[in-house]
Structures are given as structure tokens and as C-alpha cells.
Hints:
The structure holds three protein chains of three kinds.
Chain A: H1 2-22, E1 27-34, E2 37-42, H2 47-56, E3 61-70, E4 74-83, E5 86-97, E6 102-104, H3 113-124, E7 127-129
Parallel strand pairs in A: 2-5, 6-7
Antiparallel strand pairs in A: 1-2, 3-4, 4-5
Chain B: E1 16-21, E2 33-39, E3 42-49, H1 57-61, H2 66-74, H3 81-96, H4 102-131, H5 134-155, E4 164-165, E5 168-169, H6 177-201, H7 203-209, H8 217-223, H9 228-232, H10 239-242, H11 263-287, E6 307-315, E7 318-326, E8 332-338, H12 340-346, H13 348-352, H14 357-367, H15 371-375
Antiparallel strand pairs in B: 1-2, 2-3, 4-5, 6-7, 7-8
Helix pairs in contact in B: 2-3, 3-4, 4-5, 4-11, 4-14, 5-6, 6-11, 11-14
Chain C: H1 2-15, H2 21-54, H3 71-80, H4 92-110, E1 117-120, E2 123-126, H5 135-143, H6 145-156, H7 160-191, H8 196-201, H9 208-211, H10 213-227, H11 238-241, H12 252-275, H13 293-314, H14 320-349
Antiparallel strand pairs in C: 1-2
Amino acid sequence: MGDEQAAKQIIDKNIMIELSNNFPNVVSDVDVPSPNRAVARIDSSQVKEIMQFLLDKGFDHLSCISGVDYPPDKMEVVYHVTSYSGPLVITLKASIPRDDPNIDSLCDIYWNANWYERETYELYGIIFNDCPYLKVLLLPEDMEGEWPLRKDYAGYPNPT
Amino acid sequence: MTHEATQITSPTKPSEILLHLGPQHPLQPGPFLLDLKIEGETIKEAELKIGYIHKGMEKVFEDRTYIQILPLADRICYLASNSNNDVYCRGVEELLGIEPTERAKYLRVITNELCRIQSHLLGIGEYTTDVGFLTMFLYMIREREGVVSLLEAITGSRLNHNYARFGGVANDLPPGYKEMALKTFGELKKQIKSHDELLSSDSIYLSRTKGVGVLTAKQASELGVAGPPLRASGVEYDLRRIEPYLVYDDLDFKVITQTDGDVFSRVKVRLLEILESIYIIEQCLDQIPSGPYKQDVMPYITRPKPGEVYSRIEDPRGEMGMYIISDGSDKPYRFRIRGPAFATAQALPPLLIGSYVADVAAIAASMDSCTSEVDR
Amino acid sequence: MGFLDTIMNYLVIIFASNQFAPWIRGVLGGLVIGGVFGGALVMVYLERKFLGDIQSRIGPNRVGGRFGLLQLIADAIKLFTKEDIIPARADKWLFIGAPIVALTSGFLMVAVLPFDLLVIKGNEYAVAVSRMDVSILYLEAVSGLAIFGLFMAGWGSGSKYSLLAGFRNIAKMIGYEVPLGVSIISVAVMAHSLDIVEIVKAQSSIWFIIAQPLGFIIFGIALLADLGRIPFDQTEAEEELIAGWATEYSGMRWGLAFFAEYFHAVVGALIVSLIFLGGWNGLPFVGNLGIPGIIWVLIKTIMVIMLLIWIRGALPRLRIDQVSDLGWKVLLPLALLNLVWATIIGLMWA
């Protein structure tokens, strides 16, 4: 029990420090608001390397991928990664430009990223490069291209 | 694992048939389309198409105040409504910077566990109809009546309870509740033990479920499932232990795991979890402190400070999370619902490949997904 | 004795010696079929009530008083007034003919079932539509027609679900016809005759269920499989194949198909009570106890029907490959073993 507690605390404090050390110019704005939550902002071009690093460190559960729209110039892709053996949830935010939103897909690293990426694609229009079968999941096929969750979506049947 | 076999291609040989299970089908808890390419009785490829009841909840919630979202958050999954309510309230409380009162925490734990019991009872019942055991379904419904009556005594409604509020709960326990609850639980424990014995000894049932739909621990972690299917494969992942919220670190309970990872183990995990939940509620009824059940003064319009929160809960089906970004106004800027049924539904097609068509019903029902939550 | 003589004279006058006698006998035949039909109706009602009791619920209790006695009439009226839909891709004549074939097979079976044996003035009169020397062989042959009916429905519906159900049906029924036939032969061997009346007469002191318990069990399981009841109702497994071979049927056509199943079940129960449970002989070693034989037959049939319903309420459903395993690998060797046993006992008693 003591080893697990110690291991959890190590995952807690040091992982964010290790992350910043390994990817110096890419990870910024690291914050640990509470013992079980950590936030960091990352560069969208290095997503796969950072996720592989976290997977090797024991963060094997990709909880969620979401998109957030910040008009007029950027969108964010938010990843929540956690582990099956500890309570820490790392939130990673990657900013991408709003006119040309694309980012690398995580399907090789985490198997269950596929549906989350498909959902973010159909609701926001963010293209995930190399994602197998990037097509609509929740919306009907004729609504592909309408990106309903963007802030300037006028409402069905008007497209964005 | 690749994603190839989870996309259907047209049949190439004359012995292959494309079978569509759904969107209206007696086996399902809600509409989805499960396309299967079968050869004889074996499944070669499987694809799950969802979205038939997509209501656009995340967009709707961006246009409602926090208090207006409170009853709507229940209805994300109507069977686990207390869990949805609780995770939402805890998220907003963290944004507001307040804590629920002590008595309110115990009351929330009691309703959460009651909700877990009735959700498991209905999940097991739906599963047994798919194996052909219609009698067990009706027995589960009969037990569930007692539990739903207990919930109705506290919250006032049988299905969508809308019980938690920011900083507390809506009502207090009615007088004489403890005796009523203990009586119901005495009956329930006896019946659950006899059902467990029946299911473990019926030879037709065992031959239908042992070794069927096996999910190893490694596969389960890769596929991203959580909840009873993961615990049936041997991984001890229960958020009530790993990240204790409310008063779970003061309570004594076991995390139920089984080792086989087949359909039989998943159902057994749910049955034993019902008994554990009864034990938790009995402890809570003993330990509950007196005091106020909600904050004295709550602002009418909740305007949290700008920030974000990711709150989690151990839902009856897995791990539920809500990611709320607030920009200082009375409506959320982004409301992301991470449902557990989404993760288990995504894991269903790779699990079906290689098994018989006759087992599809048993495997799909043992994963216990709720289509309303998958589609949001 | 004098009273019975008068009755006998009147019966002979009505049924044999006047010019309308063939018509009267025809009406009587129709009444017999109607009686068995009514028995099937009673079985449906019993099933809904009895199964409801096992499952901790009440069953029909609104139509026709507290016990829901007129529920079936209401259901029949509903079925008659529904639209008759024939799918566009269905083979029309197969689709229409399938429930007719299934029901006809049942009617044909009723033709040889005796309900009682009257011994008047030293002559034997069997209360049956026709008494053949090879009636049990005839029964076996005609029950095979029902397989045709179900497969016609599966093929002719033009839908994948029905086709899959038809495949499963053929696999299951072929697998279980053989043990069924072998256990019937074992009974015939022990009674030294293929005539059902003789078989029942041979049980006057001891029932065949006591003489061949294994045969009874094998015949019971094979009968359940032939009837398509739980635990063998894979062809209508609601959860896997919607409604199996009856998926595309609606309205009264569905009513016919549904009814054909219950008709077969009643006929099957009658056969069991005749060839294994002593028929009209009353209790073993004790005899009739003064109650007419036909009442005994009805009591035993109702008990077998209750047993069928009870099994439905208590067991889950087997998977189709497990059904085939059970039929070929377990039942067939046991049936052959039973045949050997029956031969030995039959020779001992000869």
C-alpha cells in the first residue's frame, strides 16, 4: 500500500515536470490546480510524440477528446488522459487555426480514439490526419459539412 | 488491434450474408444499427452505426443557464439519472468554490447507490431475455419495484430523479425511512442470493455464457472500457476507490472483480455489486450526521468564475465524466459529456468478431449500453 | 345392461343405418377437429395464465371477467381485422401455403388418435376417426409434413431473417426426428403392434413410462424440439431473428401459423398421454375407478401440457449448435440403447 501511494504521488508531481523537460518548447502553461488534475497547453504538431511518451509512462486510458471553438481565429482540441492505476487526469489542450483545422490522429496509440475523433470531426470540422474511416458518427450523412457545434452555426437547415 | 474489421465491406463470396440488426429490434435497449457480415453462423465483420437519437445535448446546454441544465442532465441516461445529476452538481460546485453539506453528501451517496442497484437489476433483466430466460427478467423487475419505491420516497419520482442541487440536495429523508429501507433490503438480499445460485447452477445457462465473448484484461484496457466489463476481466478499477468523492473514503466496501472476462463473469459482477451497494447504504444510514441538507443561501443565478473542471463519477455502466468550461456568464461556454456507454459501445464490434450470430444478443446485452447516452 | 343396449341401438341407427348416416359421421368428424381446436385454444389460455403465475404476474384479467376468459376471442377479432400484407419479394404461393401445410399436418394427425375404447357386446369400438393397423407409423410420417410448412415459410418470405430461421429449423428438426422415431419404435416393440389402440391396451397394468423411463425422456425432449418450444425455440428467438420464420406474417395468417404450433403441442401431448401414460386405462394396477376413459385421457393430456408450459417458464434457450450436438451426440445413442432395452423387456413379456 505504501508503494502504491508513493507511486501515485510520483505520477502526480513529477510527470508534469518530466513532460516539460522532455518537450521544452512544446509544452507550456503547466498548472496543477488540485492533487488529481493537471493541465497543460501543447503544440499541435507534436501531439503524437507527447501521447506516446505519456502512454509509456503508464497513462493507458484515453478518457475523452473534445473540441472547443474560440471564434474568430482558433479552435482547440482537448485531450483527457488518465491511468487505470491512479487518479490523476491530465488535460492537454492543442490550439489549431480555425480556417484550416487539422491535427494528427491518435488511432495508432490509443485504439478508442477513433470514435472521439469522428465525433469531433463531424461537429467541428477538425480533420484528423491518418484517422481510419473519418466519417460521420452521430449525425446523418447529409449533415456532413455543417459543423453544428461551431459558435456561428445558424441552425438546421442553414449551414455554418 | 486494427480498425479494419469494424467497417463492413460488401460480401464477396456467395456464402456470406449481410445481416442488419436494427434499428428497430427486440434485443436493443434503444435504436442502433449493427451490421454483421456472417458466413454460416460465424461473424466476419461487424459495424455499429449510432446516432438515431442524437439530440444535440451539448449544443443545447450551451444555451441554458446552469440551473436550467440541472433537470436536463438527468436525462442523459434515464436509468442512471442520479449519477448524471451528481457528477454535474459536483462539477459546478467546484467551479463555484462551494462544498455540499455533510448530511447532503451522505444523502447523495444513498441515492447514488440505490440508482446503481436498480440500474443493475434492469441491466441483468434485459440480458436474461436475450439468453431466453424470460422468467428471470420478470423476477428482476419485481425486485426493482422495491428499490424504486425507496427512491420515490426520498426524491418524489420513479425515473428521472433530479435530486441533487448545488451545495446540497432537494429533500431530506422522510421519517421512518431507515426501517422501510432495511426491510426492503432484507428481502432483496435473499432474492439476489437465490438468483445468483440459480444462474450459477443452471446448466443450459452456463453452456450459453461460459467462455462466450471473452475480453482479456489487456484487450479491455486497449479498447478503453471501464465499469463492470473491465472489472469482470480482473482489473480493479473503481473510481469510488481510486479517486474517492463524497464520503466514499469513510465507507467500507469491496471492489468486485472476476477473472474470466466472459459473459457469465460480467453478469456475476453486477449481481455481487448489488449486494455491496446494499451494504454501503446500510452503513450510510447508520453514520449519517444530522444537520442541514442544503446551503442556507444560494444565489438564484449561478455565475461561476471563469475556469474549467473535469468531474468524474463511477456510473453503473463505467466512468462518466463532464468537462465544463465557464466564461463567467450564467451559461456554460462548452459542456462536454463523456459517457461510459460510448466507450463500451465502441468496444462491442471487435468483441463480436469470430463469435456466433446466436451469441450477439448475449454479448451485446452483457455490455449493458444505453443508447440514449451513446447518442446524447 | 339393458340401458346400454338401447343406447347402442340408437347409436347404430343414427350413425350407420339411415340414409343421412355419412353426413352425420362427417359432422362428427368436424366436431372432433373442432374439439381439438378448442383444446388448442384452452392451451393458449392456460399458457398465458400459468406462465404468468410462474413469472410472478397475473396474465390476462380484463376481458371477460376477472380471469380474462374472453381474451382469446378478442385476440382473434383483432387478428381478423388486420391488413394482410404479402411482401413484394415473397414467393406468393409458398408464403400463403406455409401455414396451411403446417395446420393440415396437425389435422391429419388427429385422424388416428383414439380417445377411448368401448367394449360393447364383445366388440371393440375405438372412439377415433379411423382405426388403422399402422397408426403410429402414419403419425410419424405425417408429423414430418410440418417441417415442410416451416421451411416453406422460411424460404417463401423473401427475408434474410426468415431464411436463417428456416436453415436452423431444418437442422434442428432433422436431428430430432430420428430419436423421435426410434423411441416410438421402442414403444411399438414393447406392445408388439403398431396400432395405437393395441399400445394402450398393452398398458392396462403398467404404464410404459415406468417400463421405459429412458424412452419417455427421449421422446419428451425430441417432442419439445419438434414443437419448437423453449428450450428449443431458436427458430423464433425473438432476440436474434425477430420472429424467425413468422417474421413477415401479419394478421390472420400469423394467427394460423401461431395456432398451428399450439395445435401440434396439444396433439403431441395427446400422443404422450396415449403411448406412455396409459391412455384411457386410468391408474396403473388399479384401473379405471369407474371414471370413463376419455376423462382420463383429458386429465393426462392437461398434465402433460402443464409440464410443457412449466419447462418453458423455467429454462433458458439453447444455442443452435448446442441443439444439434444434443440431438445427434446424446439423444440418438440413448434412443438406440432404449430400443435394445425395449426389445429385451418386450420379449420377456411376450
